[in-house]
Design brief:
Protein name: N-acetyltransferase domain-containing protein
Largest sheet: 5 strands, mixed
Helix content: 25-40%
Structural class: alpha+beta
Organism: Leishmania guyanensis
Distance between the termini: 19 Å
Number of strands: 5
InterPro entries: Acyl_CoA_acyltransferase (IPR016181), GNAT_dom (IPR000182)
Strand content: 15-25%
GO molecular function: acyltransferase activity, transferring groups other than amino-acyl groups
Number of helices: 6
Length: 147
């Protein structure tokens, strides 16, 4: 029986530094990426032949590249604010944040740390996919092939 293949997609979420230090984001991703197949019947278009779907590769949605955002300060809000939405109370954020750093520096560090974490998990980058992402030259696509 031929097993159909699918691609897995993960929404990029930048986590608060406290959770990254504790390894929670990495732990969740490691468990997610350990999945190599999707059970039969989960898709509406499934032909119900009982075959599980093999996950061929994992894709990540895009996020801003720190160096690129740094060169284009007028796009700073657009490039970083969407990725670093902090749902914590401001008082909690101030307790964990480095008082000597600006919000922009903290956002840049979060982007760099998140990219590093995905590289450690085996993802490879394709940068500057402007034609696919509305002309945004700071787009990154991360992909991991499943063995």
């Amino acid at each position: 029986m031929c097993r159909p293949s699918v691609e897995g997609y993960i929404q990029v979420v930048l986590t608060h530094p406290h959770y990254r230090r504790r390894g929670l984001a990495s732990w969740l991703l490691t468990h997610c990426l350990a999945r190599t197949e999707v059970p039969a019947g989960v898709f509406a278009s499934d032909g119900s032949d009982g075959a599980a779907y093999t996950i061929q590769r994992w894709h990540l949605h895009t996020l801003a590249v720190a160096r690129r955002a740094e060169k284009r300060p007028h796009d700073d809000d657009k490039a970083t604010r969407g990725w670093a939405q902090d749902r914590m109370q401001p008082q909690q954020h101030r307790q964990d944040a480095n008082p000597g750093k600006s919000e922009r520096e903290c956002n840049e560090e979060a982007i760099v740390a998140t990219l590093a974490m995905y590289r450690q998990l085996g993802f490879h980058e394709r940068r500057y996919l402007a034609r696919y992402y509305s002309g945004q030259n700071d787009a990154v696509e991360l992909m991991k092939m499943c063995s």
